[in-house]
Amino acid sequence: MLRTAPRTLARCCAVLGLAGAAAHADDFSGRLTVTSDYVFRGVSQSNTNPTVYGGLDYAHDSGLIAGLFAAVIDYPYSPYKPDRGQVELDLYVGFSRPAGRDFEWDLSLVHYQYLESAASNDDYQELAFNLHYRDVARFGLAVSNDAAAGGSDGWVAELELSQPLAKRFQVSGTLGRYDFSHEFWDSYWYWDLGVSAVFEPVTVDLRYYDTSDDATTFAGDRLTEARVVASISIGF
Fold this sequence. Notes:
Blueprint: H1 6-9, E1 27-35, E2 39-40, E3 43-44, E4 51-59, E5 64-72, E6 87-99, E7 103-114, E8 124-133, E9 137-144, E10 154-164, E11 169-180, E12 188-199, E13 202-211, H2 216-219, E14 227-235
């Protein structure tokens, strides 16, 4: 799922400033999430089943950012992708700085790794850029010369918006576009809309995910169909 530094890999909880909130300068932050489905860019990574994932992030006074994300996955073998095994591990390192009073940007190199993949090489990297406006909006871009380990270029653009409803509630949503130069994968749109409730350190999220029909060329019908996902995250 592109988000200040830790939000770069808070990619599964589409909530700005909540379960994936940034660490204070020269500090660590983390989160653990139990969810009814792990969805990334509109595609289920857990075969539409419940799973667990978590992340740990570090932010230094200098602007250096780093972190990791791990998830239990179940991406079945199909004509679209090989079996990726049961563990996803992502690592990132980059730089984040404020830009005036209301804006902040971060630039990161993200490494995606599948520890038990049936493929000979299922690892790939992305260069990701995010521009944040307070905790209200985020515009993200990512580029890879080996998108989803498919051997071709890929580009991602996302716009995420968030609005408080009350002291403990927030509505947020994301619209994204995943473009490929792959021979058999069509570029597609994906989006989500949900409501979150915050009871520190716990965040509860209920979210609707969907994709355009073109996503079936990337991951098939079942993993890209519309769904509602419930998640509970604990931050620390």
